[in-house]
Automatic annotation (TrEMBL):
It comes from Streptomyces machairae. Signal peptide: none annotated. This is DegT/DnrJ/EryC1/StrS family aminotransferase. It comes from the Bacteria. Residues 384-414 are annotated as: Disordered. Keywords: Aminotransferase, Pyridoxal phosphate, Transferase. Belongs to the DegT/DnrJ/EryC1 family. L-glutamine:2-deoxy-scyllo-inosose/scyllo-inosose aminotransferase subfamily. One of its GO terms (molecular function) is transaminase activity.
Length: 414
């Protein structure tokens, strides 16, 4: 039996696609990029994304092309991507940021027209559907991350269209796995327990501050240090996971360790909890979608389709950075802030900048990702802190030739 096949079968039952088990979603994405893109290819992606994913794309020997995004959810805005860009990309990588779906139907259509692969990053979106179809079943391949849900500290899947491709990718994966290390297995098993103990003992604040002081966090800021000269040197070895390991492994050093039976057994138990977890997330999303900080995109979606089981709820606030710091005093550590956008962070040497970066900058600077499992606590804390909702600037409108209305447009979300 292929390694991890019981877990993979559980995932296949959920989404109806063939799945390859991987120790992390980043490894699943690397496999997909290596399988569907030739080195030197150009990949269209959103700049509002985890920096680790940028390094996965670079490790696969590809050029990350930053797309204009929607100011409401940070995902690629296909209509704003210039035609010249469409004609010069070799693949599209979605984000489904915080679980809010990408415009996958349109992206799929464009990719089919151009004859290029659509690779879905569904790491945040295990519970997201578009017109009843699960995210992760629209493209040629999709990466899922169990560590974002049910507090599994590792585990990913690559979902693909058929058995033959799955078998091929299992072999590619086996070549990339590093031998099992007891230390990694123990960390993977014990970390979720330590995390919930810290929460239930109300130790979030002292533990977090101590980790910060001791330099145990791998990021001083929202982004990891780039180490540009070293990164440029790694390009000589691309495609190579090993050459980019110092960047790709941040937050998950065992991202390609072969897990033992202990970890896999624990993950099977945790996977069985997924539906309960998603139900609790939906309840939290419903609460947060009704607050003044919710995005109109979320409010609209919740009103039409019910609450989605998001990984995080993107709240739009002024003074986001100060709020992130103050929330720690309320026992809330707001992670997954992707600011600045990847093109501002890495520069033109490493990525192709977006032709219109304004929406990405605005969204990245004002988004507070709220864990729906802590919805009540976060909503109370934001009320106490007098957090002000932020509204994206309204783009300047070109005057229309025939002005039949005299009422000025109402800014969205106000
Ligand atoms: C958007 C996105 N994709 C993929 C990943 C990688 O997931 P994993 O930690 O399972 O490798 C992350 C990690 O945070 C992420 O935020």
């Amino acid at each position: 039996m292929p390694y991890g096949s019981r877990l993979a079968a559980m995932m296949t039952r959920r989404i109806g696609r063939e799945c390859v088990y991987t120790p992390s979603a980043r490894l699943a994405l690397y496999l997909a990029l290596r399988r569907w893109c030739l080195p030197g290819g150009r990949v269209l992606m959103s700049p509002v994304n985890d920096d680790v994913i940028l390094f996965v794309v670079l490790a696969a020997g590809l050029r990350p092309v930053q797309a204009p995004v929607s100011q409401w959810d940070g995902n690629i805005d296909p209509a704003a991507v210039p035609e010249t860009t469409w004609r010069n990309v070799d693949a599209v990588l979605t984000t489904n940021l915080y679980g809010m779906p990408d415009r996958v139907v349109e992206l799929r259509r464009r990719c089919d027209e151009l004859g290029i692969p659509l690779i879905e990053d569904a790491a945040h979106a295990i519970g997201t559907h578009v017109d009843g179809q699960p995210i992760g079943t629209f493209g040629q391949a999709a990466a899922f991350s169990l560590s974002k849900h049910v507090a599994g500290m590792a585990c990913g899947f690559l979902a693909v269209e058929d058995v033959r491709t799955r078998r091929e990718l299992e072999l590619l994966r086996d070549d990339l796995l590093t031998p099992r290390r007891l230390r990694h297995d123990l960390t993977t098993t014990l970390r979720p327990l330590a995390r919930s103990a810290v929460r239930s003992l109300h130790l979030v604040r002292p533990v977090w501050r101590t980790m910060q002081r001791l330099g145990l966090l791998e990021r001083d800021d929202f982004r990891m240090a780039l180490h540009a000269p070293r990164l440029a040197g790694s390009a000589r070895h691309a495609p190579s996971l090993a050459a980019y390991e110092p960047w790709v492994r941040v937050d998950l050093h065992g991202f390609r360790s072969r897990h033992g039976a202990l970890v896999r057994g624990q993950l099977e138990l945790r996977m069985a909890l997924l539906d309960g977890d998603l139900a609790r997330r939906r309840a939290g999303v419903s609460l947060l979608a009704g607050t003044t900080w919710a995005t109109p995109a979320l409010r609209e979606r919740t009103a039409h389709d019910g609450s989605p089981g998001l990984f995080r709820v993107p709240l739009l606030v002024h003074d986001r950075n100060a709020l992130v710091t103050r929330l720690v005093d309320h026992g809330v550590v707001a992670g997954y802030v992707y600011d600045p956008p990847l093109d501002d962070y890495a520069g033109a040497e490493f990525v192709e900048p977006s032709p219109d970066p304004s929406a990405a900058r605005w969204f990245a600077a004002h988004t507070l990702p709220a864990d729906p499992l802590l919805a009540r606590r976060i909503s109370d804390a934001l009320t106490k802190e007098l957090a002000t909702p932020a509204h994206p600037p309204i783009p300047a409108r070109t005057p229309e030739p025939d002005t039949t209305t005299t009422t000025p447009p109402t800014p969205l979300g106000q």
